[in-house]
Amino acid sequence: MEDSEKIMNTGQQSPKTAAKSKDQMLSGAAWRTGADMIGKILGVIYIIPWYAWMGRFGNEANSLFSMGYNIYALFLLISTVGIPAAIAREVARYNTLDDPNMAYRLVRQMLGVMLVLGIVASGLMFFLAGPLSALVGGKDSADLIPVMKSLALAVLIFPSMSVIRGYFQGLNQVKAYAMSQLLEQIVRVIWMLAATFAIMKLGSHNWQNAVTQSTLAAFIGMLGSYAVLFYYLQKSGNLNKLINPGPVKSKINALEIFRSTLHTAIPFIVIGSAIQIFKIIDNSTFMNMMPWVTNYSHNELLVLMSYFSANTDKLTMVLLGVALTLGSVSDPLITEHYVQGNRRELATLVGYNFQLYVGFMLPAVIGMSLLTKPIYTIFYQIPSGLQSSLFVFAILQTFLLGLYMIVYPPLTVMDHKRLAMRIFTLTLVIKLVSQVPMILIFHTYGPLLATTVSFLVGVFLFIRKLHELTHFSIKNTVRGIQGATLLTGFMAIVVIIVEIILGFIFGKSPGRIASVFIAAIAGGAGFYTYLWFAAKLGLLEKWFGPRGLSLRRKLHI
Questions:
Q1: Which distant-in-sequence residues (6+ apart) come within 8 Å of 90 by Cβ?
Q2: 140-171 residue pLDDT tens
Q3: Cα 365 to the center of its chain, rounded Å
């Protein structure tokens, strides 16, 4: 009762305090958005020199890198189990209750718990590197073992690092959080490129060693991130307080928080890792099943897998990041309306979320599909017919995968975790059942087809249940989606026309530099066309409110 009163009293802020809080929130959002954007740009741009320095082994290297990272990403999800968000919530709570020493003790205890969890997860990944490599890479997967072991080092320190990030998030000191993420990415990319150049251009030319050093870069980057976090801890004077916290007013049990967080987070982790799990299934089945029906060598299979998975994933993950951002913005609002029982507002928000998603994702997916040849040339090489068709398939499929990331979180936050788990399980079963026959019949297209079929069923079931729970207006939602679809059609026409005209200038097989101009000019023309029509039809104001009106004025439309 006393705690509740304190929290309520602190909520009665003066206008000056409220303004300060708003400034902190805007500053934090700016830091997070800026760091995230720079990190994503670095995470895409590095591919160009890295792939080029790998020479004729670029596709094999990318596949080896991707197979290791798929397992690594799953271990990261499991090893953190939603703890950073729980730490942020508890730190904010105890600081609100004027008991900062309790927050220090909590962070110190959780560091111990997560250090143990990191050791366990890292040990499993390190000592199971052989079986895991055989699982995802087939019988001739010895080159993948050192990749797995190098990534196990990053798994060792990531859980404890996430506790400190959660601590800064709870204090609303987002600059420290954002800078740690940014420096992690910068250090990682520098190590990757320097090591790859040293090996492939100056040293042994062993592409397998270059890939291992590139994955080791994840651990080196985290060391840089840790250094930034400790710098901000020392600068703020919190490091000594974490080591020697003073007397506390409350009681806390770190293990109890861990257990309750684990219980809450498991559905989010399992359902949210669906795409990652499906990628692992693709790797393991393709590399193990294709030798049954073809005479391809192990390296040739790695090349084929790069066509439908590794090469496309590097670019489609940017689009999926947009979907994840949209979902993360709407989830708290959906939770708020659901808890308050605002059914009408909840229905409106869910329908609006679909319209906003289509408005963002559809033009991006169609635009990238139309510009497949210049985009692929910029990052990799002039694509063959097979590479182009697989890339287009994967890009279009991204719309479905992103939609999945939009529709499953509302069910989990609306206390339907078991139902969400059942839908996920059915989606997974369909993938497993269809995967092998699809690969045996359609070869490189097989994994993409199996994923498409399974996610179509899963997304349909999620949307149907969302409609049953919220009764969002299908008519209004479809009407809004039709507007975005029409604009995308206009955009596509412009992109095609501009690309044809530029084709007469740069020739049928433009190189990397010419492809940059084609993608920039044709893509820019299409993007402006989309914005222009969106402004004229009033969709910018509908999607973004006052910011849409401001954008319209800046564009002088």
A1: 103, 106, 170, 252, 257
A2: 788 999 999 999 999 999 998 988 888 887 77
A3: 16
CA–CA separation, 549 vs 556, rounded Å?
11
Distance CA 161, CA 319 (A): 27
Structure tokens at 275: 């795409």
pLDDT of 14 reads 47
pLDDT at 12: 46
Alpha-carbon dihedral angle through residues 74, 80, 85, 88, given to the nearest 10 degrees: -150
Burial of 354 (0-12, 13-18, 19+ CB in 10 A): buried
Cα-flanking dihedrals φ and ψ of residue 20, to 5°?
A: -65, -40
With b for 16 or more beta-carbon neighbours within 10 A and e for fewer, the 446-461 pattern comes to bbbbbbbbbbebbbeb
Mind listing the pLDDT tens digit for each residue in 325-376? Answer: 666 666 666 766 776 777 888 888 888 888 888 988 999 999 999 999 999 9
- Per-residue pLDDT at 247: 67
For residue 318, give both structure tokens.
């940017």
Cα–Cα distances (Å) from 95 to 10, 38, 102, 168, 261, in that order, read 11, 31, 8, 12, 20
pLDDT score, position 6: 44
Q: Nearest CA to 315 among 372, 362, 235?
A: 372
Q: Which of 263, 267, 273, 262 is nearest to 117 (CA)?
A: 262
At 3 the pLDDT is 46
Q: What is the pLDDT of residue 480?
A: 83
pLDDT at residue 457, rounded to an integer: 96
User: Which residues of the chain fall below pLDDT 70?
Assistant: 1-36, 81, 246-255, 257-258, 260-264, 325-333, 335-336, 339, 544-548, 551, 555-556
- In whole angstroms, give the CA distance from residue 114 to residue 110: 6
DSSP string, 479-544: HHHHHHHHHHHHHHHHHHHHHHHHHHHH-SS--HHHHHHHHHHHHHHHHHHHHHHHHHTTHHHHHH
Distance of CA 134 to the CA centre of its chain: 26
Q: Which two tokens stand for residue 329?
A: 């913005």
Question: 17-26 burial string, b = 16+ CB within 10 Å, else e?
Answer: eeeeeeeeee
pLDDT digits (tens, 9 = 90+) for 223-263: 999 999 999 888 887 777 777 776 666 666 666 766 766 66
Distance CA(272)–CA(74), nearest Å, equals: 10
* Angle between the N-to-C axes of helices 15-45 and 311-340, in degrees from 0 to 180, rounded to the nearest 10: 160
d(CA 528, CA 534): 10
Q: How far apart are CA 470 and CA 51, in angstroms?
A: 47
Q: What is the DSSP letter of 557?
A: -
Question: Rounded distance, CA 278 to CA 379, Å?
Answer: 25
How many Å is the maximal CA-CA distance in the chain?
A: 76
Supply the pLDDT for residue 394. Answer: 94
The DSSP 8-state label assigned to residue 442 in this structure reads H
